[in-house]
Write a structure and sequence with these properties.
Elements (H helix, E strand, L loop, with lengths): L1 H49 L3 H14 L4 H13 L3 H15 L2 H21 L5 H5 L9 E2 L1 H7 L4 H8 L1 E6 L5 E5 L2 E7 L23 E3 L7 E2 L5 E2 H5 L5 E8 L4 E8 L2 E6 L5 E2 L6 E4 L9 E10 L11 E6 L8 E6 L4 E7 L1 E9 L2 E10 L4 E7 L8 E6 L7 E8 L5 E4 L11 E6 L6 E6 L5 E8 L12 E6 L4 E4 L9 E8 L2 E4 L6
Parallel strand pairs: 13-19
Antiparallel strand pairs: 1-6, 2-3, 3-4, 4-5, 7-11, 8-9, 9-10, 10-12, 13-16, 14-15, 14-17, 17-18, 20-24, 20-26, 21-22, 21-25, 23-24, 25-28, 26-27, 28-29
Helix pairs in contact: 1-2, 1-3, 2-3, 3-4, 3-5, 4-5
């Protein structure tokens, strides 16, 4: 009997151990394969750089960074390739992103050198740039902008809405008795506590109630909520943001330091500053206090600007617009409707989530999820004309922060030709795919049209600029196919803040990755 009991005990333990060993071996094999591919990319990039073939060097360095986003040499190599190719702004942005991800002194030193020499370099060489060179150069946008997509949510979401849309990634009780929550894809800390006016913590579960609103929100870095915050700013820059009101310098009694305090979308935002209203550190103390109560009966204005996916031009033809309550609601009751005129329409709707149906003007019927916050909202909406047999169109849109998201189409055509279509290589060999539209300054749109869908491709997104994250960008990917169908993909709750593999295409068929495509 003793031996049998011993067997019953040891067998499960042995199974668990064997399973753990298998997992370890799988992870080690995966990491080894990744290291091997990374080494191949870096070796190829270094070779092209030494031969002054900057375009190929740039391509392979970027592919290497997509495999290992913390490799210092890859950022230094990519920046050097950009710099030697007279793409000075790209070189600086690459090093800014690299320093954010690695905190490397080598990258910081090179960044300071390039910044100090940019004006001389561009002054001497900019006039000799060809149109092709200029078309692949990403220009710095140094304006300070607030993350609209994030604040639309912060200004009106309850705990349940955060939970349903993003899920909880981390939650604990602080020494002060607050519940501190983090949600997938949102790199912010949300604090909940009971007050004399309201009970928001469930006594049985110790978690916030469904209707709970955080009493404060804290960002681990200002660049999560403000574009270009890492470069430093002052109160005048804050006052220059559309929608900001009542910006002033005041003494915060909790930290006993000066702060810039201002209102945006009914949120009260405080950021530590000096006595003159200057903010020099991305890590400055900050606090966001969302509105305690949201009146869901008051209407707010939504303005839609309708653009063509293939060229981002305004669609002047009339387009019918229908609004339904809730997200992804394509068949429910219509609560508001209108017709666009010269590419613009307006709707007045209470705070909440809605699905817009856009139909007409010779474009494919399409649907957009929108969130009506506590103030007027304006958004560009993209429509596509029908695509022909054997082709496919991919449209990426996002909000004001990050400044720049890049779509990459990587793979091989039906004839085996290797391609990598992105901002630095807009047209694939044989015109098998093209980058038609590339915006780089927030509220962007990127369109890639594939003219040979019978190959094998990966469509992936990279946060090129160092601000914000993919999860809070408001990113939406739409795929248009010849059968008139539109597939819509949004970032999953656990999306990486920098890189997102969205889907694959195999012989004309969309292949899901990690449940991205519903």
């Amino acid at each position: 009997m003793v031996k049998k009991r011993l067997v019953y005990i040891l067998v499960p333990i042995l199974v668990v151990c064997l399973g753990a060993v298998a997992v370890i071996i799988t992870v080690m094999t995966f990491n080894a394969n990744n290291k091997s591919v990374f080494s191949e990319k870096i070796s190829a990039a270094d070779k092209y750089l030494s031969e002054n073939d900057y375009e190929n060097a740039i391509m392979y360095y970027k592919e290497a960074i997509m495999i290992d986003s913390k490799n210092v040499d890859a950022y230094l190599g990519l920046a050097e390739a950009y710099y030697n190719n007279r793409q000075y702004d790209n070189a600086i942005t690459t090093l800014e992103v690299g320093y954010e991800r690695t905190n490397s002194d080598r990258i910081k030193e090179r960044l300071e050198y390039y910044r100090n020499h940019r004006s001389d370099a561009s002054g001497n060489d900019a006039t000799s740039q060809t149109s092709d060179e200029m078309s692949t150069t990403k220009k710095d946008d140094t304006s300070l902008r607030i993350n609209d997509s994030l604040f639309d949510v912060i200004s009106s979401y309850t705990y349940k809405q955060y939970y349903d849309r993003y899920s909880v990634s981390d939650e604990n009780t602080t020494s002060d008795g607050d519940v501190r929550s983090k949600f997938g894809g949102i790199d912010l800390e949300f604090y909940y506590k009971n007050t004399d006016d309201s009970i928001v913590i469930d006594a049985n579960t110790g978690k916030p109630t469904d209707s709970a609103i955080p009493y404060k929100i804290v960002s681990p870095g200002l660049d999560k909520i403000l574009s270009n915050a890492s470069d430093g700013f002052n109160i005048d820059d804050i006052r220059g943001i559309v929608g900001v009101t009542d910006a002033s310098i005041t003494m915060n009694s909790d930290i006993r330091k000066n702060v810039i305090q201002f209102n945006y979308k009914d949120c009260l935002i405080s950021i530590e500053c000096d006595e003159s209203g200057n903010v020099s550190s991305n890590d400055a103390w900050n606090e966001i206090i969302p509105p305690k109560d949201v009146d869901n009966t008051v209407n707010h204005k939504f303005t839609g600007n309708i653009k063509d996916a293939s060229n981002y031009n305004t669609i002047v033809a009339d387009v019918n617009v229908y609004a339904r309550e809730g997200l992804n609601n394509r068949t429910g009751d219509i609560v508001a409707q209108t017709v666009s005129k010269n590419g613009t329409f307006n709707l007045d709707l209470p705070t909440g989530d809605y699905t817009l149906e856009l139909n007409g003007g010779g474009y494919v019927r399409d649907y957009y999820n929108i969130h009506i916050a506590t103030e007027a909202t304006e958004k560009d909406l993209i429509l596509s004309q029908s695509v022909s047999s054997g082709t496919m169109r991919i449209v990426l849109t996002w909000g004001s922060v990050p400044r720049d998201l890049d779509g990459h189409l990587i793979g091989s055509t039906s004839t085996g030709q290797q391609i990598h279509v992105y901002y630095a290589d807009k047209t694939a060999p044989g015109n098998s795919a093209n980058l038609d539209v590339d915006h780089i300054s927030g509220n962007g749109c990127e369109t890639i049209t594939i003219n040979d869908i019978n190959g094998s491709y990966l469509y992936t997104i990279n946060r090129f600029s160092g601000d914000g994250s993919i999860g809070t960008s408001g990113a939406v990917v739409k795929i248009y196919t010849a059968d008139g169908q539109v597939t819509t993909v949004t970032p999953p709750a656990n999306v990486d803040p920098i890189n997102w593999d969205v889907f694959r295409i195999e012989n004309g068929t969309l292949k899901d990755i990690d449940g991205n495509i519903e």
